[in-house]
């Protein structure tokens, strides 16, 4: 089973080209479940219009209205038993999507979240993450993924019973999902360097194990636009393998 999370950036800069590039990346990778953050109405239109999405994926979106300029999207080609959206205490209308599945007779839950941004919001993120984790604490098989906005100094708030997949599988690589050494568009926005791993996949499971993880969208959208990338964030894709009864 393949999972992916992508903060696709609400900014209008070359938005159509960026959204189409993200769609092409995901069409090639074909994750089973995808969650997106900073989804605007134009982004939602582009993604849901993709032939491969229309043919193979169900969707759940929370976008616009009282949530502000952007929201969240879930795409799934695995049948979903139930999906819900929960608002978090936030100054930025943040929240999380919860999708519940039955796979091979066992329950599996995917949570897509977007926590508060900004250095000054560490206490808010702490409270938000606790609420999210508490909502699935009793679930045996859970993936929590999205834009956590956590600085390294905040890693201590990560739940101890969940594995942070990137450092577990690739401990010698930083896995920066905002990386101005590569992403010139991100540098041009702020005129300063940034190297952070805001986007993560956390896993707690007794019937699944993380097998591989990679970053998505590390190339410009086109040769003629060398400083325009699909987003200011890189996406994260994680592949899970089912654990056999003999190895449990």
TrEMBL record:
<dbReference type="Pfam" id="PF03372">
    <property type="entry name" value="Exo_endo_phos"/>
</dbReference>
<keyword id="KW-0227">DNA damage</keyword>
<keyword id="KW-0255">Endonuclease</keyword>
<dbReference type="InterPro" id="IPR051547">
    <property type="entry name" value="TDP2-like"/>
</dbReference>
<dbReference type="GO" id="GO:0046872">
    <property type="term" value="F:metal ion binding"/>
</dbReference>
<protein>
    <submittedName>
        <fullName>Endonuclease</fullName>
    </submittedName>
</protein>
<feature type="domain" description="Endonuclease/exonuclease/phosphatase">
    <location>
        <begin position="4"/>
        <end position="233"/>
    </location>
</feature>
<dbReference type="GO" id="GO:0004519">
    <property type="term" value="F:endonuclease activity"/>
</dbReference>
<dbReference type="InterPro" id="IPR036691">
    <property type="entry name" value="Endo/exonu/phosph_ase_sf"/>
</dbReference>
<dbReference type="GO" id="GO:0070260">
    <property type="term" value="F:5'-tyrosyl-DNA phosphodiesterase activity"/>
</dbReference>
<dbReference type="GO" id="GO:0005737">
    <property type="term" value="C:cytoplasm"/>
</dbReference>
<dbReference type="InterPro" id="IPR005135">
    <property type="entry name" value="Endo/exonuclease/phosphatase"/>
</dbReference>
<dbReference type="GO" id="GO:0006302">
    <property type="term" value="P:double-strand break repair"/>
</dbReference>
<keyword id="KW-0460">Magnesium</keyword>
<keyword id="KW-0479">Metal-binding</keyword>
<dbReference type="GO" id="GO:0003697">
    <property type="term" value="F:single-stranded DNA binding"/>
</dbReference>
<keyword id="KW-0378">Hydrolase</keyword>
<keyword id="KW-0540">Nuclease</keyword>
<keyword id="KW-0234">DNA repair</keyword>
